[in-house]
Every structure is written in C-alpha cells, then in structure tokens.
Amino acid sequence: MSQISQPNPTGALALADGSVFVGQGCGASGIAIGELCFNTAMTGQQEILSDPSYAGQVVCFTFPHVGNVGANSEDEESASAPARHAAVGMISRAPLTPPANYRATESFGEWLRTRGIISLTGVDTRALTRRIREHGMPMCAVAHDPAGNIDIEDLKASARAAATMEGRELAAAVTREAAGEWDESAWNWDSGHGRGATTGPRVVVLDYGVKANILRLLVSAGARVAVVPGNTPAADILKLSPDGIVVSNGPGDPAATGAYALPTLRTLIDSNIPILGICLGHQMLALALGGRTVKMPQGHHGANHPVKNHETGQVEIVSMNHGFAVDGASLPEDAVETHVSLFDGSNCGFRLTGKPVEAVQHHPEASPGPQDSFGVFTRFVGSLKVSEPA
Ligand SMILES: NC(=O)CC[C@H](N)C(=O)O
Fold first, then answer.
1. pLDDT recorded at residue 199
2. Which value, to the nearest 10 degrees, does the dihedral of the CA atoms of residues 94, 56, 360, 307 take?
3. For the segment 101-128, what is each residue's pLDDT rounded down to a tens digit?
4. Which residues lie with the beta carbon below 6 Å from any ligand 1 atom?
5. According to the UniProt record, where is the region CPSase (predicted)?
6. What ipTM was assigned to the predicted interfaces of this complex?
7. pTM value?
8. How many CB atoms lie within 10 A of CB 20?
C-alpha cells in the first residue's frame, strides 16, 4: 500500500485485513473503530460528518483538500440538541486547510476535536478508495495521539475484532429522547435560517437520526413539523393527528432497526395517512411491506450521483449516503419503482399504487449536494390535506 512519508506520524489507520496507513492525527485524539467508507463530495464535510446516518462509520474524503470552509453552527446536520453522535472518524489526503470563508466561526480541526471525531490527514486516499472499491467497506481502527504513541499491532487487532455493520442497530443511539416541534426553515443567502408558518399540514417525523435539512425543507414547504423518537408507538404518533408522516434517514442495518420499527410502520401504512420515507426510512418501509434489503459492497456516498426518476423521465444529480440497498425485485406487486441509480441500477425509490406511501433512497435534502430533488418535499407537503386541529 503506498503511503505519503510522514516526518512525525501522530495518527494511523488499520484495516481489518491488516493494512496500515500512517499520517498526521488531527481533530479529537484517541481511537475510533468503525466501518470505513469513502465519500466523493467536494464540499460539505461538516454536513457529512454531522449526519447521524454516519454513526459507527469512518469517512475517507476523496477530495484532497478539507477545511477551507471551516465550521459553523448553521451547517450542523444532527437535528438533536445536544447533537447526537455521527461519524466517528475522518481521513483526508492533505493537511487541514485553515478556514477562508465568511461563514466560518471556528476551524474545521477545532470542530472535529469538539465533536470527538478522530481524524487523520496525509493518507493516500486514492489507494484507500481503490481498496474499498475492490474489496468493499472494511472495518477499521483510526488512532490520533499528539505524542505519537500509537500501538500499530493493537490497532490492527481492534480493526480485526470489530463487529461489521450487518445486524447492527444504531438508530437508538442517535434518535432524540423526547418529542418536540421544529420550526426552522431552509437557509438562504440574505437571512440565514428562517422560521416556519404556524398553519399548514401537520407532518410528524419519525427520528432515526434525522438530518436537520429534511426538517428545514419540510418547514419551507409549508408543513408544521413535529419530531418524535424512533421508538414512539404508532398509537402515540396517530394521537398527534398527522396529515403526513416522514420516516427519516439513520445509521446501521435497516433490518436490525426494523426489528422494533416494523410493527409501527405497518400500523401507520394501514392508517392511510400519506408517508414519505428517506434513506433508512425508505429501506424500513420496503421491509415493512415484505421486501428485502442487502448489504452493498462499497455503498454510495457522495454528492453527485445520477438517479433516473421514472415518473418524470429526468435524471437527478443527488446526494447519497447508504451502505445497504432495497432489492427492487423484492418489493410487493403494488409497488412501482420510481427511481433507480444510474451507477449500478440499484433501487432508489418506490411508491405504492393502492396506498399513499412513497420513499427515496437518496437524500433529497442534499446538504451537501445539488437541489435537483427538493421537489420531493414540496410535492409531498403540497399533496397533504390539512385536518381540523384535534
Ligand atoms: N443515510 C441513511 O439513512 C443510511 C441508511 C443505512 N444506514 C445505510 O447505510 O444504508
């Protein structure tokens, strides 16, 4: 494995197969263990690493320069307060660039440190990415010690012993503790985030690690948004008189999360209230309908993935972050495949013909990424009928 020579290695990455990459540690110090994936986005590193769907994962950025945007509180994607755990580690090619953006309130390195993200720069990220493409996403251990005391054999053993992502339920660690209202709307250039209207359809979001921009775009589309913990019983959700329900993104294996969520989702599907699933939510709705999810070899993580929207005939360039996929062939007969990945043909969306259920695998809220799929929110909220207040 090629490596960039380091004058003073203060960080290292070991993969489960025993490969080791050394470099300069930054961000938090300590050891993080997780599944290693690569992300091809060129911007939005703060949004990516604060997305709770990345819980239990270490992200290798293929874009070599990281840090010039710095960090700020408006770009956080964890929607819980205090922020819930997201990515545990970060790998990049070049040393972190100092912030050079008017929105930065702190350096990216300082943000990584306060968020507890163990980070490593100076790594040959091309070699690492090629390795993931050829052999899949390995379990890994990444260490940062400012004094350079890193036990490589110990790191290798930790990576080898790490439990793989299959069968892991991680949403419980990132969902919010209590239900609450959300009224922050999408960011705009002139005034930053706004506040939502107090009328409009009531949308209840099941939080399995929801990204803030999903909530913001629902508000911007005119919804009154309530967010509930992922394990809220269906009866309590229905008591909120939702006009629409959103099943959020989230980390881990959808089959493991579904073990407690599927009965709730089935009751909600039977209620005939319109439902929108996003990413983990898409996968869990497929499971609730009798479908199957599979582990992908390298997953999709980036901000420039082409997806064909069969409903409009158009190609949307979207943000992606998933390591599991819905087996399109396993969807029930009354499901129409609405979206497909143009990279590998995997299922990226479906809707039912007999019930108001629709779901997408990609991240229509972007953050980071293009806005091609924002219409998912305006269409969904626009289709909801406002019920009388309970
Ligand atoms: N972004 C997400 O919701 C990810 C879903 C799931 N954890 C996966 O990796 O496939």
1. 86
2. 30
3. 999 999 999 999 999 999 999 999 999 9
4. 53, 249-252, 254, 279-280, 321-324
5. 1-201
6. 0.98
7. 0.95
8. 17
